[in-house]
Amino acid sequence: MSGNIEAKEILRKHIAQAASLTDEQFDYFFSHFKSLSCKKGEALIQAGKPVVHEYFVISGCLKAFFVNDDIKTYILQFAMPTWWTSDYAAMYNHTNATITVDCITDAEVLCLSSDDRERLCSELHQIEHFFRWRTNRGYVASQKRLLSFMNNDTKARYEELLSLYPQLYNLVPKHLIAAYLGVSRETLSRLYNHHR
């Protein structure tokens, strides 16, 4: 039970960045989430399957990734505590997932169904405001990453990632960071050793 209280506090602090809810409103909001304990390697979303939930990370680290026809893996996102993840295209368009989301470490997450999210947004203006704020931040981060890929060499992308998310390097194996940066493990090792 204490885990649930902790999860509730973490979510409340996160929401408070953009929306102020009364205790009653927040309790109602929180009642729509389901708490999940996941094991390292466990998939929350699988490519080819329907997507009905988005996930808010309480502890641990997840990754969202795509595997192309040549079996090359592309990592779209790492999701650390207080980050959200899902296959949003599949969730909004009611199609099957094109990406997989799984656990890099054991993780605690809260999941919210898309139906509940829509209902909450129509019932509580502050929740709609929160999700709009969060979506806008996501757009900005995606655009920044895309521009970084277009403008920066591997070394600059690596240093940018290191400065933005230093905790990633303790949570995530090096081969996954290499896949996120779009480089080989060997290239990453050279950068990592040079940087230290």
Automatic annotation (TrEMBL):
Cross-referenced SUPFAM superfamilies: cAMP-binding domain-like
Name this polypeptide is given: Crp/Fnr family transcriptional regulator
InterPro entries for this protein: cNMP-bd_dom (IPR000595), cNMP-bd_dom_sf (IPR018490), RmlC-like_jellyroll (IPR014710)
Parts forming coiled coils: none
Domain Cyclic nucleotide-binding: 37-122
